[in-house]
Amino acid sequence: MNPISFILGAPIKAQRQPQRLRAEPEELVQFKAYYEEHIEPLTRKFENHRVASLKALRGRLYTSLGILLGLALLILVFSLSGYLDIPWVFFIVLCLPFGWWSYRPLKRYKRDVKQEVFPKIFRYFGPDFIFSTSHNMSLTQLKRSKLLPGYDNAKFDDYVQGTYKGVEIAINELCLTKQVKREKSTETETVFRGVMVQLSSHKRFKGHTVVVKNRGGLVNFLSSSFKRLNRVKLEDPRFEKQFDVFSSDQIEARYLLTLGFMERLQSLANLFSGKIQCAFYEDKLLIMLQSGDNRFELGSIFNGATFEYEFSQINREMKQLFAMIEVLKLDQNIGF
Amino acid sequence: MEGLLLGLGLVVIITYLWYVSLIKKRNAVREALSGIDVQLKKRANLVPNILKIAQKFMDHEKSLLTEITALRTQVTAGYDLNDADAIKEHLGLAEQLNNKMGQLMVSVENYPELKSDKTMVQAMTTYSEVEEHISAARRFYNAAVSELNNAVEIFPGSIIASMAKVKVMPFYEADEASKTPIDASDYLK
Fold it and tell me: Where in the cell is it found (chain B) (predicted)?
């Protein structure tokens, strides 16, 4: 089924046929076993929920369409006879509550999946893994990283927390927006959209060190500081070309950013098209990954509620994040 | 006349700014040097503990332990911060101590009892942590020295430096022994 056939009235039936679980060949057996034990038992209940939501959505869409068409007809008749002169913008505004009302069953279904199924999916990565849409990182703590750009509004989305190979992980989607005044209007501009990854560190540190995108030669010539942190010039010219490092402690910055770590951070930056910045502060490493992708989301509503796609997709995304820990060797008790 | 005065004023300002920058660079080197000393002091405080544990087990390494003790005393002794030769000697001794401690750590491998001793394991972990800090301090110091030496040796900075008595500073170099390439055949006999 697709959106057009759905609107045109194609029958909505429960889909029990499985899709395909996707994982690396070496973990596929374990992956399938986990799915069958923990996720598959939920699929029948949610498939019924999905079908009911789609039916409710279509019913409400038809009702809304009928009411709106009736209203449009009335407005047209009265406009033509000169009794009414309503601008068409009013009609568009009228569509909004109907749209909201029609979408509600779907929204409820998605919320229920995230509340009941996703936590089970995330427990695959470890017994202490939690997934939540209501939890979020402390914005004050994030602000203290000195990485956040100027913003007016912050909106958190999905939150994941757990431990991988002894490293405590917290992941939170974040969108930062700013009001920008144009000539005639004020527009909302997104200044950051992506994922914040907070990792515990086995190295202890007192100072504050940030690795930011290269600001350019001219800016660095004119200013050798960044939010009251001093510039740290490192030995690796390739790293210096890509990043600028600022710290409150010159020695500690070099203790944290060893030559090996710099190389690993560069390979990580290549994986994420260079849109990566990080901060070592308060005994944590905070990685800021800029990305337009909305992570940990539900697949198409028109597919059966087997959650195989979601499980495979989340597994792939989490493996990418775990690779970061391995690339940065945060799990090993050696110099970074 | 006005042009001449203007030119002269400009030269004075530029010379003064150059002088300021040189002094800042020299102070950065001194700051980096004190950073190294803090770490060397940490290591010096750690060495007696390691030696105390090692002495119980390492009967055949007496001369090495004595050498380490002597070097530790020399490294902790004061030196003239304004004397480049004294700094070079101080850093050289620190590197020799590092080298000897490295030898000691390798020798520990031959004493399984010592290797598994809890206090020794903890001391060695702390030692390697301090070594990482020393290495970081050395990188900071060498970066600061490199900037200062460039400023002092390149004309016209060299003239201002000689007037201000700012001199080139020695790098903290790795010990010659650790720079020598290893011949694998020696170990494969």
Answer: Membrane
